Amino acid sequence: MIVAKEQFPLFNPEQYFTWEEKQTNKHEYINGQIYAMSGGTVNHGRIAIRFTAMFEAHLENTNCITGNSDIKIKMADTHNYTYPDASVTCDERDKNTPNYITYPCLIIEVLSDSTEAYDRGKKFRLYRQNPVLQDYVLVSSTRIEIDLYHKNEAGEWIIINYQEGDIIELKSINLSFPIEQVYRNLTVD
């Protein structure tokens, strides 16, 4: 998804929820500022769908919730809200909040030229404040490449770069799959 800062007055979280309910498009909310979410490319959409379908099938008999780009994430200990392309929460606390989840163990962002720096930088800094998050996955929509930011047992974030021929391992939900499964029948460089 592409993010653009809108020219709105500063909202508090309650005003944001009330206002966004009446909008036709989604908007992220960071430190009182509203950011419009616009559509992505066909590859972007298909990749996001592949992840949510794969997660939903894998987690079918668990208490985990698979989220698509319509499910907001509330940043832990803040009043900031974002819309990742896909997410998974297995935390019981997220079953009591109908408008968002707060404790995802896994977040997927499909990269676009306009959001890559934000997704790798400021957005990841916000996400990693969450004590439950274990895997943050950045997926290229133009080439066969996935970067996995994984929080190890010492609480340190390590980066694993996956390319063609690699097997992706998402420890947060105990799932491994070939990278080609994500890019099947897509046109990429």
From TrEMBL:
The lineage of its organism: Bacteria, Bacillati, Cyanobacteriota, Cyanophyceae, Oscillatoriophycideae. Residues 13-173 form the Putative restriction endonuclease domain. It comes from Rippkaea orientalis (strain PCC 8801 / RF-1). This is Putative restriction endonuclease domain-containing protein. InterPro entries: Nuclease_put_TT1808, Restrct_endonuc-II-like, Uma2. It comes from the Bacteria.
